[in-house]
Amino acid sequence: MAGEMRGAHAGVEPRESATGRAAGAPVAPRPRASTESAGACARWAPGSAILWRYRANTRHVPGLTDARAGFHICRPVTVVRDTPELLAVWLAPGTVCIKPVLADGTPLHRAPLAARYTRSRTTVRTTWQGTGVLKLALADEPWSVWLFWEPGWRFRNYYVNLEAPRTRWAGGVDSEDHFLDLSVRSDGTTELLDEDEFEAAQRAGLMGRAQRTQVRSALERARRAVAEWRPPFCDNWHRWRPQPDWPVPELPEDWDRAALAPERRSTALPPEPPRRPDPPPAPEAAPTTNAAGAEPDAQGTPFNIHPDRPQSAP
Ligand code: MG
């Protein structure tokens, strides 16, 4: 996939003046992906509306009956490209999503760290504000790569979200967040984020020693992918733009429905590609800031992008 953008979106030329759909833009009804149109192993056509969901990290903790025990994040997204190697989706501004909060309504990022993973939770609807997010997931890798832009399509940074390899089902993909994140600038430099949450989650019993080791290993694997500027970093996705006529996908009432007939897949990670002899970082302007994990700004711009706390409450 190196070089020019290929595939589903190749017909859309990069447009510096293009903008994502503004928050509050009309939401057009659209049939969502179904078992008829996209079986568990079928590919979704560009423009399809699917759900990108995260299970709560507590499903192995006995006795939990609140929202922590099910899906706690759900983001309706538009499929950009779906191949055996890569799933690319667009989270548009104005999309109604599901996010977790404490049972009293406190946003997670405002809860004390010691209580963030122990207090009872619920889920609320929230509207994705600010700029949209392009999410790229290489098949079976234990992370996804998100691209953020400033208003006006000034590229901000990549964001590697450590997570369980996604499970495909008829209506979308499911995963589980693994707390650690890696912010990646255009020059290839990185910043590890949310180690405090990673440690707190372990203290709260949400992640055992074996999983801790697996996530740390995945982090090193992701760092190698960045250091060698492998796909998707080298594929010019920062120049991608959404189709201007794509409607904002709707959040279905049964957003937390069980994933029927999930795709069977191996639990083994795919082999890492051979090291590239010459992995130059992308030659582009460095972002002005590295705001991954930052709090929303005064205008409410949602650059707080941890899946547990993706943005300010509307
Ligand atoms: Mg994360």
Distance between the termini: 38 Å
The tally of strands reads: 11
**At CATH's second level, what is the architecture?**
Beta Barrel
Main sheet characteristics:
7 strands, mixed, barrel
Structural class: mainly beta
CATH class label: Mainly Beta
Beta-strand proportion:
25-35%
How would you characterize this protein structure?
The protein is mainly β and 314 residues long. The chain has a single domain (7-12, 21-239), classed as FomD barrel-like fold (Beta Barrel), CATH 2.40.380. It has three helices and eleven strands; from the N terminus they run ββββαβββββββαα. The strands form two sheets. Strands 1-2-3-6-7-8-10 form a seven-stranded mixed barrel. Strands 4-5 form a two-stranded antiparallel ribbon. A hairpin with a 2-residue loop joins strand 9 (167-169) and strand 10. The chain is globular and about 45 Å long. The termini are far apart. Mean pLDDT is 77; it is low at 1-31, 34-39 and 279-314. Magnesium ion (MG) is lined by residues 161-162, 177, 179, 181, 306-307.
Which tags fit this structure?
mainly beta; 314 residues; two-stranded antiparallel sheet; single chain; binds magnesium ion; seven-stranded mixed barrel; FomD barrel-like fold; globular; 10% helix
Compact overview of the structure:
This protein is mainly beta and 314 residues long. The chain contains 3 helices and 11 strands; from the N terminus they run ββββαβββββββαα. Magnesium ion binds at residues 161-162, 177, 179, 181, 306-307.
Write the layout of secondary structure elements.
Elements (H helix, E strand, L loop, with lengths): L48 E7 L15 E12 L3 E6 L4 E7 L10 H4 L4 E7 L5 E6 L4 E8 L3 E10 L3 E3 L2 E13 L5 E4 L1 H9 L5 H19 L87
This protein binds magnesium ion (MG).
